[in-house]
């Protein structure tokens, strides 16, 4: 089965959608965990919960039957192995941490998806994954 690689911009839109979802959850958690209520400056626990939620959200959903986060589902793309198979939790964890590497130097690792032949970002190259359009 041949899959069409997803390029930089569609992946960017998926990331924006995911960021919006995480921000909404973060706002809700900030409101719930404010101590005392109304003290916006004291939201460390909410930030911690938001970070943990983000990590679990990305890692679990990428390794799940959905093969991607809600942003990827909405725009019609998915994360697969280089052999076009669903990735496991270990590879998903590695991919999550490799995305940090992709962003360290001016996001060059992400921008690479716009210039490589098979539309792979640095974290895809490191982890043996690819982001492709879903089959209809």
Notable characteristics:
6 helices; 7% strand; cell membrane; RDD; transmembrane helix; globular; membrane; two-stranded antiparallel ribbon; 136 residues; mainly alpha
Q: What do these coordinates show?
A:
- InterPro entries: Pra-immunoreactive (IPR051791), RDD (IPR010432).
- It is found in: Cell membrane.
- Keywords: Cell membrane, Membrane, Transmembrane, Transmembrane helix.
- This is RDD family protein.
- It is a multi-pass membrane protein.
- The chain has 136 residues and is mostly helical.
- The chain has one domain.
- The chain has helices spanning 8-33, 44-63, 70-75, 89-104, 108-111, 122-127, and strands spanning 77-81, 129-133.
- The chain has a two-stranded antiparallel sheet.
- α1 (8-33) crosses α2 and α2 (44-63) crosses α4.
- The longest helix has 26 residues, at 8-33.
- The protein is globular and about 50 Å long.
What's this, in brief?
By secondary structure, the protein is mainly alpha-helical. It has six helices and two strands, in the order αααβαααβ.
The parts where pLDDT drops under 50 for at least 5 residues are none
Question: What about the largest sheet?
Answer: 2 strands, antiparallel
Terminal Cα separation, in Å?
13 Å
Structural class: mainly alpha
- Biggest sheet: strand arrangement: 1-2
What's the SSE pattern?
Answer: HHHEHHHE
What layout of secondary structure does this protein have?
Elements (H helix, E strand, L loop, with lengths): L7 H26 L10 H20 L6 H6 L1 E5 L7 H16 L3 H4 L10 H6 L1 E5 L3
Antiparallel strand pairs: 1-2
